[in-house]
Write a structure and sequence with these properties.
alpha/beta, Rossmann fold, five-stranded parallel sheet, globular
């Protein structure tokens, strides 16, 4: 059974490339372009990993991550934050309880490595 990933980004080009590579690598991918849709997916489906852009319409990716990590049923779901803004990303990742971060633009190899590490970590 393939692992299910939620990829949340409001930039169509970034989402298109990332989703293509993830699916090609064998992952099932669901997408959202705003925080409302993302939170709806998170509440209705079980994901093996959630990718959240920090800058989204509505809640930020950091706010969604906090909600995931504070929910007893969701808190073990790995979350990777990503953004083009590099300032304090490592610190923010730690503060909101995210499992990792990725800086845009990213190479697809980096993306796949982060996914592998997050899903492997989840299964330990």
């Amino acid at each position: 059974m393939s692992k299910k990933i939620l990829f949340v980004d409001d930039e169509a080009d970034v989402q298109k490339v990332a989703v293509f590579r993830l699916r090609k690598a064998g992952y099932e991918v669901v997408t959202a372009t705003n925080s409302e849709d993302a939170w709806g997916w998170i509440q209705s489906e079980k994901f093996d990993l959630v990718f959240l852009d920090l800058r989204l319409p509505g809640m930020t990716g950091a706010e969604i991550c906090k909600k995931i990590k504070s929910d007893e049923n969701l808190k073990k779901t790995p979350v990777i934050l990503f953004t083009a803004s590099v300032r304090n990303l490592a610190l923010l990742t730690k503060e909101v309880g995210a499992d990792d971060f990725l800086i845009k633009p990213f190479e697809t190899e980096q993306l796949l490595e982060k996914v592998k590490n997050a899903i492997f970590k989840e299964n330990q």
